Amino acid sequence: MSQARTVLDLGTAFGEKLREVGASDLMQDVELPTSTLLARLERHGIAADRAHLEAMEQQFAGAVQQAVKEAHAAAGHEFNLGSPKQLQEVLFGELNLPKTKKTKTGYTTDADALAWLAAQTENELPVIMLRHREQAKLRVTVEGLIKSIAPDGRIHTTFNQTVAATGRLSSTDPNLQNIPVRTDEGRAIRRGFVVGEGFESLMTADYSQIELRVMAHLSEDEGLLEAFTSGEDLHTTVASQVFSVDRSKVDAEMRRKIKAMSYGLAYGLSAFGLSQQLNIDAGEARALMDTYFERFGGVRDYLRRAVDEARATGYTETMLGRRRYLPDLNSDNRQRREMAERMALNAPIQGTAADIVKIAMLNVHGALTEAKLESRMLLQVHDEIVLEIAPGERKKVEELVRREMAGAVSLRAPLDVSVGVGPNWESAAH
Question: How far apart are CA 308 and CA 167, in angstroms?
Fold first, then answer.
């Protein structure tokens, strides 16, 4: 009872604070309606193909066992792959591989260290260990999904609005945001999420390159805005400008570097971070960033301005007025200060993208209700919305979803929506 009373008292205090900082509309028009909508999504859940998921769990279990056998063969004896101490002894003591970063307990054997070892040596054990960890993680993910299937045959995740500081939604019990989408195994897991009884298909709708569009809008960089409105492939267009070559001469490697660069900037990536991601030296990464900023000066100026303003005010703000306070921007500790600077770059961009997705969800749900359609929203994962389509409603729902998502807010780089339909989550991808 005292906790309930405390919430009531805090509601009054925070309500006044929200008015002071100009965030009342964000609370009343976005967050509270989103909370109600998420409760509806949680009740709906999404149908699961238990047999498919159980077969996948067996497949990953087999792959884990196979990796254990291969690791023992590579080491010449059995050892516990889950013990960092035993793994250190094998890698650096018995096999005498190059030393990684020193920690309190020896030399690190995390994923980055194993990937570095795999690149530095001919020894197969680091590669086997990486595969073992990946397959073990996938097995745990699938096990969690199977355990989460409710008596109604559906998985009912829990959405959290107040976990991610940027305003993004997160998902727990089970976490549907950690299913990899770019790997064959991840896509196979997604095939276990299927259309439910009484409905004809699943539909996925997501925003194309939303963070980069937000960055183009906030920075007002003419070159980047032009790249978005030209109708050409964004990363190819940007690469042709950065590398000073014709679009037809942009190869896959150039495009890959620019894609990592563009997204990296939206996430506050440093030159060192970019060098790690692209596996190039820090000097080359810095030169790439410098050239990028020469071509897109508006982006450079915006990112500098974002950090300077946040340092002066103590917070960053999204287009809708969502604040993130960053007291460490003025810290004497360099590491803490640099981390806060990365957050200051990232929060307005990712936070604005999160706000846009919430508005889109509310608009889509409102339009479905107004049109008296039986189709319904089931999930929101990152920038993607998943819907269950009632018989005969596909065309209407697709038109409605495209209209409401594209019109959620007005940006200088217009929002672009991709839609796909299929009998399961993977086949509905686009």
Answer: 22
Beta bridge partner(s), residue 203: 387, 421
Those residues whose C-beta lies under 8 Å from the C-beta of residue 7, and which sit 6 or more positions away, are none
Distance separating alpha carbons of residues 334 and 337, to the nearest angstrom: 5
What is Dmax (Cα atoms) for the chain? Answer: 69
* 336 backbone dihedrals φ, ψ, rounded to 5°: -65, -40
Question: For residue 109, how many other CB atoms are within 10 A of its CB?
Answer: 24
382: left (phi over 0), alpha (psi -120 to 50) or beta: left
- Could you count the other beta carbons within 10 Å of the beta carbon of residue 55? 13
Which of 250, 268, 258, 257 has the alpha carbon at shortest distance from 306?
Answer: 268
Element spanning 430, H or E: none
Residues with Cβ within 8 Å of 272's Cβ and at least 6 positions away in sequence, in order, are 282, 285
Query: What are the beta bridge partners of residue 323?
Result: 317
**Spatial separation of the C-alpha atoms in residues 31 and 161, rounded to whole Å:** 8
**Do 214 and 225 form a contact (C-beta atoms < 8 A)?**
no
Q: Give me the pLDDT at residue 426, please.
A: 95
- pLDDT number for residue 372: 97
What gap in Å lies between CA 248 and CA 254, rounded to an integer? 12
Strand, helix or coil for residue 319: coil
Q: What residues have CB less than 8 Å from 96, skipping those under 6 apart?
A: none
- The structure's pTM equals 0.90
> What are the tens digits of pLDDT across the range 181-212?
888 988 999 999 999 999 999 999 999 999 99
Alpha carbon 418 to its chain's center: 17
How many CB atoms lie under 10 A from the CB of residue 260?
Answer: 18
- For helices 334-370 and 394-406, the axis angle rounded to 10 degrees is 140
3-class state of residue 245 by DSSP: coil
Q: Cα-flanking dihedrals φ and ψ of residue 62, to 5°?
A: -65, -40
Domains of the chain: 2-49+154-209+355-422 (3.30.70.370), 56-147 (1.20.1060.10), 211-350 (1.10.150.20)
Orientation of helix 334-370 relative to helix 252-266, angle to 10° = 90
Contact 204, 378 (CB under 8 A): no
